[in-house]
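Give me a protein, keeping tokens residue-aligned:
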Amino acid sequence: MNRSNASAGDGANLLALRSHNTALVLGLLRGAGAEGISRLELAEHTGLTPQAVSKITARLRGEGLAAEAGRRASTGGKPRTVLRLVPEAGHAVGVHLDRDELRAVLVDLDGTVVGERCAPLDLGAGAEAVLAGVARAAEELVAEALGPPAARGPGSPGAEGLRTPATEASERSDAPARGERALGERALGGRGPGKRASGKRASGERGERASEEWGPGERASEGRERGEQASGERGERASEGRVSSAGEGAPLGGAALDAAPTLLGLGVALPGPLDHVRGVLHRVTGFPEWDGYPLRDALERRLGVPVVVDKDTNAAALGLAIGGGGAVGGSGGGSFAYLHLGTGLGAGLVFGGGVHRGARTGAGEFGHQVVQLDGPPCTCGARGCIEALCLAAVARGDLAEAARVLGTGAANLAGLLDIDQVLLGGRTVAAAPEAFVQGVGAVLDARARREGGHDGAVPVRLAPGGPRGVAEGAAQLLLAPLFGHGSSG
């Protein structure tokens, strides 16, 4: 998109256009790797004028996000200067909250993991225990990998704060998706890394914070703004899970995070359903006491840095769409379903390179499709769900049956959506990858033969990333918008 194409009536969108153009350039810089890319090539790939590219790259260099990578011979004239991304100029923490385990990673702008933590977790232990576990893991990662800020000095990458042109645009934009604003309005907007977050909402968009956070067991009434207190009866663990708002505007912990100059924030992924735009949990399967809990706001208040929350399957799917390479056909297009089988069963859906969340952010509740009307009860309240049948088979050691059930759900999904491929992940799959890949593939093969499809069955593959795939995807919830990777909604 070229700036010259904007009409006079698009004045309100010029800052968003500037953000978009910067994201295009940053994405190409990251894709070029250490070899770098010239300004002329950036102009050719983006459709921007050479002058526009020069202005953008000058800003990126001044902010420490880009640097020279040498010179390259040209077909005529002087050698071209080649630019590269500076990966260490920014970092994000990705956290995977499973029902019984917490896994956290610290990644740089390239998505390279530079630190990892794993610890037991009881998702039903209450908000205070869960938030404390997240804070502890994040602070240890940042302290170990980034060190104290003084050790880096004022000239180190990111020391002056990562305020990109995307920041200024996002501060004024009306982008609907929270993840697409993370690096503007909250992660970078008005706050370079190393400056304490104010803890206050932008007026007119978010309202004031409630005087107290909800604890698990306090149900949010539908349609109520985040700034209002939840009504309803308190659950048995509400007092244990309550997060106090004492010290509004200052983090209750996480000083090490707030002082880390290159830290953009945290991405947190956990079982759904949830509202990723508002960062509010719904009735997490098996843990209904979390219904209505504003996890994002509670973590931001505690840690003093921006937080983005999404479902574990969506986070993993985003990570695969961006960095999956040949396993998922690259990030430019195509469709796939990521099926995650661990302590539960869910799906992440990607179409055209973007995560599909649905009109009510509820897409991907794959495990709770009913395939046996008189089947065993599921923790969601229904009977005969794929999740219940699949986990029951795993519990009794019948992996062939578990794979067959999972394959049945995958075949239903392939028939409904006509996806390009199915990727399998999660701890249960990782423990016996061949059994699940072959078992699910056999069901899809049988379906293709019945239908007489000329292109063969939808391929089934093991998702790359291993046990930390969800945590890495959670970090991408923060990083992806910086490089022009949003979600398709």
